[in-house]
Amino acid sequence: MSTTFDREAPASGKTDSGRRGSHAMRWWVLVVLGTAQLMVTLDATVVNIALPAAQHDLGFSDGSRQWVITGYALAFGSLLLLGGRLGDLFGRRTTFVTGLVGFAGASVVGGAAGSFEVLVGARVAQGLFAALLAPAALSLLSVTFTQPSERPKAFGIFSALAGAGAAVGLLLGGMLTEWTSWRWVMYVNVIFAGVALLGALLLLAKPAVTERPRIDIPGTITVSAALFAIVYGFAHVESTSWTNPVTLGSLAGGVVLLAVFVWLETRVAHPLLPLRLVLDRTRGGAFLAVFVLGMGMFSIFLFLTYYLEASIGYSPIEAGLAFLPMVVGIVASSTTAPSLLLPRVGPKIVITAGFLVSASGMALLTQLTLDSTYVAHIMPGMILLGLGIGAVMTTAFQGATSGVHHEDTGVASALINTSQQVGGSISTALLTTVASSATTDYLTSHKPSALTMAQAGVEGYTATLAWGAGIFVIGAVLSAFLIPNRALTPSEGEPVMAH
């Protein structure tokens, strides 16, 4: 029993000479980790803008197009927990560097692709290496900043980059596609990866790995298959229906495999995902908050982009620029909420209020019409969304790694990314159905005309935004009930080799 208690106990805020945490270069380490995180998050949206140009160049069908997106999501979502645990076992520095090199290499192959198959293969490889890179970056942050006075600021800056990355991706994708070639949305990753790799090799201390690595093979296979089936099932909905046998089989199989995984983790000596990580109310509530945030955010980026381009005629660059007030809101709240609000009101209040602010921004955007103007009707909702998302994200990231011992930070960080990825997959499938249904209902109840067609599109987009607002309200309610309002404990520092 004593061993269990020791591992459950919050990691001490103190640091010693053998642990990473207080070295003078830690703020430069944050720059390195933030650069890598920005690359991974913007890659989720930067390709969307370039897809039509890539499709025209390589000559693939509309039906095949989704695999450029889905290939990345399947590899990333299904391998994240394994990637996180490999960081814990073999050293976060090693997995971080491997992820950077691999991601850059896959990006070069994708940029040079002469066929659809090579492009999809490169996207799958990007997802695989991102599954190593994303958990390693967040867990390195967690074990580097262990001082309670510095940790909120560091997490705030990191969360700002994570939250802003998707919106920046839309703008960057538009600029690169319009001014150069769609291939540069892949090549640009080499610049990000090169900067981060140089910094990693110069700044990251080598971990002192004292134990022989053990991998939970049954758990790894089961959860990877479960996440693959779930992400694939929701992706399949978009091109078929909710009653399609493959969709139903994938989703049901995924749920059964998840249940088997949980059962396995209670019985193996070295579990891939120690259940103590999620059974803690602070961490469990934070993982759930990230899941809900992932669901709501995808509806913003996907359907609001459709509205801006298809309904009111913005170019890809103009659509990307339209998201900048939201980026400003995310950066502002991510960098101020941890230091100003969190110590005063606690994590429960910050996350709950953040969700409600986001919901109010989404609710404003449900009023959009074909005649809406940017400053009066779009920008206020964008700003509120940014402020709310930033507050939730930075607090949930801290909460999910609160009190985690260094040997578990990788898998805890991976679970954050998994929660966001699966939430996004669910909402993309769900809200695509909502948009299609709302559009069809409007068309069947109005006389056919060009105006009716345009308005039907708006009805579909605003219906998804209304659902997004509802999702954020649910997030607020769940956070209010689940997350205890106590101070967030730092993670434990990682043992590193002396210089």
Question: Would you summarize the structure shown here?
Answer:
The protein is mainly alpha-helical.
Description of the structure:
- The chain has helices spanning 2-8, 26-58, 62-90, 92-111, 116-144, 151-179, 184-203, 217-239, 245-265, 276-279, 281-311, 316-322, 324-345, 347-365, 374-400, 409-444, 450-482.
- It is mostly helical.
- The chain starts with a helix and ends in a 17-residue tail after the last helix.
- The radius of gyration is 22 Å and the shape is globular.
- The chain has two domains: 20-215 and 272-482, MFS general substrate transporter like domains (Growth Hormone, Chain: A, Up-down Bundle); 216-271.
- It has 17 helices and no strands.
List strands and helices in order, with pairings.
Layout: H1 2-8, H2 26-58, H3 62-90, H4 92-111, H5 116-144, H6 151-179, H7 184-203, H8 217-239, H9 245-265, H10 276-279, H11 281-311, H12 316-322, H13 324-345, H14 347-365, H15 374-400, H16 409-444, H17 450-482
What are the salient characteristics of this protein?
disordered N terminus, Growth Hormone, Chain: A, mainly alpha, single chain, 0% strand
| CATH class term of the largest domain | Mainly Alpha
- Secondary-structure element sequence? HHHHHHHHHHHHHHHHH
Count the beta strands. Answer: 0
CATH superfamily of the largest domain: MFS general substrate transporter like domains
Mean pLDDT: 87
Low-confidence stretches: 1-22
Strand content: under 5%
